[in-house]
Amino acid sequence: MEKLSFKNILTIIFLALLSLVFIAPVIIVVINSFKGQFFIADSPFTFPNSGTFSGFENYINGIEKTDFFGAFFYSLVITIGAVGLIVLCTSMTAWYLARVKGKLSSLIYYLFVFSMIVPFQMVMFTLSKIANTLRFDNPLGLILIYLGFGAGLSVFIFTGFARAIPLEIEEAATVDGCGPVRMFFYIIFPILRPTAVTVAILNAMWIWNDYLLPYLIIGSDYKTIPIAVQYLQGGYGSRDMGALMAMLVLSIIPIIIFYLLCQKYIIKGVVAGAVKG
Fold first, then answer.
1. Of 54, 83, 215, 229, which one has the greatest count of Cβ atoms within 10 A?
2. How far apart are alpha carbons 123 and 217 in whole angstroms?
3. CB 33 within 8 A of CB 58
């Protein structure tokens, strides 16, 4: 077994400390979710003891106050619907842009890339007004809006990988009588699967945790988890810190599980799309 050099040991120590810095806020939230709310402000960095431990009381109160399961349902529907639509539509678009050469396809591609650098704050008020006028202020409308905001990065990633697919595969399928739709779903999309998983993970993490866009578009009529958690803060700065911490823990568990199950595809898909293109 090869011995680690002093430089490598220092690098490992530094990365371990850096990872601890990033994970520390999550650990603090989990610890405080099991404390009585009056003890959280006084000793936020200590573990619960016999005097401060509240069991699952914070979780029960938070679920009752926020209608957590209703918010979970809306977050799940919106996330799955938006991610599925983004993956399907942008992969088709990327395949078209990778195969059709011309000024129009180049213009479309660079418009998608340009959309990645436009700050959301520049369009949020106009967007909310248009969404209200077109009756998009509902979960279905929000899914379509997410498609627009997620298309830029997704098309960029998909296009880089689609350009690396050998054209001979498609030519052979055409000779065998395969049409464009069948070719995409039976040949192209299976090849794009690692990139599709990467796109799905990145968009799912963004959509699940997004607060501002659902707040502007659907408000409190269809509360997602971030909006429901925000309602734990009352007037004049009052807030139930115990329930707030508990709901934060419940909100991050699903997306952490999803990320851990699929994270091996992230680097693989991003590198394939960036290098092979």
1. 83
2. 13
3. yes
d(CA 140, CA 80): 11
Q: Which residues contact 271 (CB under 8 A, 6 or more apart)?
A: none
Q: Are 44 and 32 in contact (CB under 8 A)?
A: yes
Q: Any idea how long the chain is?
A: 277
C-alpha 194/C-alpha 160 separation (Å) is: 13
Give 233-267 pLDDT, tens digit per residue.
Answer: 765 556 778 888 889 899 988 888 888 887 776 66
| Strand runs labelled E in 187-266 | none
Give me the residue label for tokens 């408000």.
219
Matching residue, tokens 């213009």: 107
Cα 249 → chain centroid: 17
User: What distance in Å separates the CA atoms of residue 100 and residue 106, rounded to the nearest whole number?
Assistant: 9
Considering the entire predicted model, what is its pTM?
0.84
Per residue in 150-169, pLDDT (tens digit) is 999 999 999 988 888 888 88
Short-list 188, 146, 145, 143, CA closest to 169? 188
DSSP code string of 35-101? B-HHHHTT-TTSPP-TTTB-TTHHHHHHHHHHTHHHHHHHHHHHHHHHHHHHHHHHHHHHHHHHH--
Tell me the domains of the chain and their CATH numbers. Answer: 63-275 (1.10.3720.10)
What one-letter code names the amino acid at 78? I
